[in-house]
Amino acid sequence: xxxxxxxxxxxxxxxxxxxxxxxxxxxxxxxxxxxxxxxxxxxxxxxxxxxxxxxxxxxxxxxxxxxxxxxxxxxxxxxxxxxxxxxxxxxxxxxxxxxxxxxx
Length: 104
What we know:
Elements: H1 7-16, E1 20-25, E2 28-33, E3 39-44, H2 52-62, H3 67-70, H4 86-102
Antiparallel strand pairs: 1-2, 2-3
């Protein structure tokens, strides 16, 4: 049986690969990576185990492989973001504000 990943593990890998939070509607979170092509991945929030089919769909959306999740040590460094536009920066600031409210 293949390893099942949690939402938290998937989000961590996406962020390490340069994806940024865009929005959330209900229990679904939208992450985007600006580039050519621009990639958008939708991830269910607060799941201890993401079903295999859903995980494969996230891999396709994010243009990743299962190997990206199997690596024990992902190299630290700058995310693979090409450019941060003012609109993206505004969304990032909004996310920071929301996260700081959640942690209180």
